[in-house]
Amino acid sequence: MDAEWAMTGLIMVPLAAAIVVYVTATRFVAAWGVAVAMIQTGLTFWLTRSILQSGPVQVPLGGWEAPLGIPLYADGISVLMLIMTTLVGATSTCYAAAYFSALQHDPRRSSSQPTIQTFWPLWLILWSALNALFLSADVFNLYVTLELITISAVALIGLAGKAQALVAAIRYLFAALMGSLFYLLGVALLYSTYGTVSWHLLAETVQADVLTWCAASLMIIGLLLKTALFPLHFWLPAAHANAPAPVSGLLSGLVLKASFFMILRLWFYVFHPVMPVSAGWMLSVLGSAAILWGSIQAIRQQRVKLMIAYSTVAQVGYLFLVFGLACEPMGMLAWRGTAYLAFAHACAKAAAFMVAGSLMYMVGSDLLDRWEGIGRREPKLIFALALAGVSLMGLPPSAGFIAKWLLLNAAIGNGRWEVAAVIVLGGLLAAVYMFRIIGVSLSSAVPMPETMPIPRMMRWAPLVLAMVVIVGGIVTTEPIRLLEIGAPPIAAREVAP
Amino acid sequence: MKEAWRGITSMTIGGVLIAALVGIVSYAIWTLPAQSVGLADAAAAELERSGVSNPVTSVLLNYRAYDTLLEITVLWLAVLAAMVLVGGWSTGVGQISETQNPVLRGLVRLLTPLMILISGYLLWVGGHAPGGAFQAGAVLGSAGVLLVLAGVDWTRKVPPWGERVLLTMGLTTFMIVGLGDMLLQGVFLEYPPEYAKWLILVIEAPSGLSIAAALIALFLGGRLRCRHMMSDQMSDEGV
Amino acid sequence: MTYATLYAICGVVLFGIGFYGTVFCRHLIRKVMAVNLMGAGVFLVMIALAARTPSGAPDPVPHAMVLTGIVVAVSATALMLALIRRLHHQTGLTELPEQMEH
User: Fold this and answer.
1) Which helix (DSSP H) or strand (DSSP E) does residue A268 occupy?
2) Disulfide engineering: A322 pairs with which of A338, B4, B216, C46, CB 3.0-4.6 Å?
3) CA-based angle A370:B234:A151, to the nearest 5?
4) Which member of A147, A154, A215 has the closest CB to residue B74?
5) Do A140 and C19 touch (CB under 8 A)?
6) Structural domain boundaries enclosing A318
7) Distance of CA A421 to the CA centre of its chain
8) pLDDT (tens digit, 9 = 90+) per residue, B64-123?
9) d(CA C83, CA C96)
10) Architecture of the domain whose range is C3-91
């Protein structure tokens, strides 16, 4: 029993469970979901241990090595992403189980609201596809997994059933499909030049010519559209805010990270030697714009879920600062910080969306005005929101603080004061919108008409996830050591002219 | 007026930008060498061991079988999504079925057995010539759609569990074979070379049926068993 | 300039037309068709460039990828149509409203 069983299992277990749940139409779907969550936790733990002991693993599926076959590949960053998926996925599973069973007894429920049976196969396929994406070493296979993710994500938004959600889902789907096709055209050009779709082999042979540059641009632009980097974020707020409560967190936490992980992979493992420095800085400038624009929009919103969604636009901006910073001597710090930020943001944002979902279920609305005094009735949830907010603002002790601290060090170390200023300003703006929510919810209580009791799991799941973010700010040596395994050759760039 | 002008301006600018994009990519393709082997030779060299003699099938079901497994998942996922969103509600089909055009019925009566035969042939021939599970599934699926259009209400007779089994049997078989290989050979989907031909056929046959079922289900709005008239279930929803 | 490059460039032009349509067409069904045109363009590029082998027998790997791509495109189209039908049934809309964020 070794790493390849864990890798195959991470992809196949949710998929098999999706089939079983669908075919048997069992009433105990939630139990299956929780069982999958437990198995995934075990497999992730096992794979992490194996990677920490013996370095990156490659599994040639079907026994065919690249370029003919499709290998699975796990290194430090992909394992960090898998841990992120498992943590957010497992808590969301428990949350969803409680949410959907509560919804069935909800008197306000209309026929358009999602039922438990339809959610589970879609979510389990999404889970399987996310793991498949983080483990893939083949740029065409990445396209297929990305499409699986898109289609299941859009269907999950459509579960909400309201016209707003449908419009948001359609807009998201068109944007995502355009993005995928740009990516696929890039893959076609790469294959016709280099005769391979394995990114390991591409990294060895890649040259600086028009065709490579063109292919890289098409792929990255397509993925930027899917990652919603400003100004391509137009689809994100509505899609994430109007999704059902357990789905919003998955979208902001995990689905965005999938396409971002692909950009990170392609940029730093394949195209880094041939990309002009200016292209990296262009992404960083867009990232800075995203931080400011997203934060200001978040402050202006009246609906809490929209605030959190715009906060995602801003936090995605932070992830793109690395592309400029990595061109300079302190690049490695920025790379580590960014990978860790992706992890921190996933947990914090999923927790925030879960809190918003619980309170929205309780009050029946996510308008901030309706939340006055809610914190006195639900202290646990507001505490979880505050913890998540600490990470989003980048305050210690939290994983978000460590990540932003690394980014800040890289910026200052390289003498990029303007980037450092944006990082700090983004944190301050995040404080404004987080304190606005928390402030309103802790204000003196107004008597609330007809609220729904929140199931216990809908309080605990976000709290657990928020605690993870805090623990991630205290226990940092292991994650950083993990990121060292199979880290990209950023340092090599410093020697090149 | 102002709106219209803004529209025209953005469309012109967009058009110019897209034309520039097309120009750059076309130029890049122009710079490609006229000849390139790609993986053709590598694929041909291993063809002996792949269990089939049609190179495309060998890529689809042996070298890159994992892609195909995910792709069958995508198709099933689309059916699930359509079922969630539309719920098998399908007005158009109901109306057509009621007209019962005798010419169409006669034609379909002639065509259906032929199409089933052709789809079986395509499935078998995929091993050494163009064909395979997808082509077979597409032909079988269109036969099923034609039957529905002609008013032959065969999908009503499919029990609910039968529908679910039909839609997933390809994927299930694929995964069982893959895991079986893993137990025997140590790697997911690594067929023992001497059984490769038969294992590929074992995967392809149920996959073809599942693909056909999925295509019919997509046509009928996510369910094989469609309700005929527009039901009122969905019209009471809030906007 | 060979036939293969000519076809591939045709594919890129189709991709561009499809992209324009996806961005600027208002009616949702037209958008669906435009996205499919983009996809067809990419598939044409892949198939055309696979024909450049010296032996004349085309490279099977892009062919298999296009088959996979077609199935993905079918699934995505089905999802688009399902969403559009649902939206139309629920609201009577055939176009996306300008702003429905809030």
Assistant:
1) none
2) A338
3) 80
4) A147
5) no
6) 301-497
7) 25
8) 999 999 999 999 999 999 988 887 655 455 555 556 678 888 888 899 999 999 999 999
9) 12
10) Orthogonal Bundle (1.10)
